[in-house]
Amino acid sequence: RKEVEQDPGPFNVPEGATVAFNCTYSNSASQSFFWYRQDCRKEPKLLMSVYSSGNEDGRFTAQLNRASQYISLLIRDSKLSDSATYLCVVMEYGNKLVFGAGTILRVKS
Amino acid sequence: DGGITQSPKYLFRKEGQNVTLSCEQNLNHDAMYWYRQDPGQGLRLIYYSQIVNDFQKGDIAEGYSVSREKKESFPLTVTSAQKNPTAFYLCASSDYTGTGGPSTEAFFGQGTRLTVV
User: Fold this and answer.
1) Which of A32, A89, A97 shows the shortest C-beta gap to B102?
2) What residues contact B90, with CB distance under 8 A and at least 6 apart?
3) Looking at residue B35, what is its pLDDT?
4) Winning range, highest mean pLDDT, from B29-33, B63-67, B93-97
5) 3-state secondary structure of A62
6) Contacts of A59 by beta carbon, 8 Å cutoff, 6+ apart
7) Chain B: nearest CA to A100, how far in angstroms?
8) If you average pLDDT over residues A10-35, what whole number do you get?
9) Which of A108, B35, B61, B67 is most buried, by the most CB atoms less than 10 A from its CB?
10) Which residues, 6+ apart, have CB-to-CB distance to B84 below 8 Å?
11) What stretches of chain B adopt beta strand conformation (E)?
12) H/E run at residue A50
């Protein structure tokens, strides 16, 4: 079983749509959780950290369920500029930073 | 400006040669990482280092070596034992918070594209 699993997509959605990505992780001792965004042929950049209480940043909402070892990202009112690969990232005990394979989002006009 | 610098941006290697990829950070971060990314794939962890003079193997360490003699530097050597080295290599760093503490985000360099010719 992979340490971090994501649905690879692609998710093809119209502008203005709401889209949700899910991620599961296998190591129950994992400490920190993040969503990163990667554009084609670029380095990943932090989208948002994920906290146990859930957190929101504008159109983006992240949720963490430690009991189910599950992380989610919700994007509301999708924009063309949201098209990218979204990476679920888990910091395991001992600072091992593990990435999921990524979910591709394509927003179309 | 603080950040991570990887060099070179593009690197061409002949079969059988060792090459070293540079990664330097001035963020004063303790933890540093090397990842490999193949086209259409996610990031796979090669090596990581929590502190100077210490490093651990990641999931795909075979054919690679690293050193961490200085806090700001974490070079990666791709040896001739790596059979398929053509890939995009990314270096990252983050704060080390020790046991039980939350870790801050990881910052990435712009990557090195290695091609075997």
Assistant:
1) A32
2) A43, A44, B6, B34, B35, B36, B37, B43, B108, B109, B111
3) 97
4) B63-67
5) strand
6) A75, A76, A77
7) 6
8) 94
9) B35
10) none
11) 4-7, 10-13, 19-25, 31-37, 43-51, 54-57, 64-66, 76-78, 87-94, 107-108, 112-116
12) strand A45-50
Does the CB of B55 have a partner CB in chain A at under 8 Å? no
CB atoms within 10 A of CB A100: 26
Number of A:B CB contacts under 8 A? 59
Interval A47-102: pLDDT, tens: 999 988 889 999 999 999 999 999 999 999 999 999 999 999 999 877 889 999 99
pLDDT at position A17: 98
Judged against a pLDDT cut of 70, whether residue B95 lies above it is answered with: yes
Q: Please answer yes or no on whether A44 and B90 come within 8 Å at the CB atom.
A: yes
- From the CA of B115, how many Å to the nearest CA of chain A? 15
- Residues of B numbered 15-54 whose beta carbons fall under 8 angstroms of chain A's beta carbons: which are they? 31, 33, 35, 41-45, 48, 50
Residue B41's pLDDT is what?
A: 86
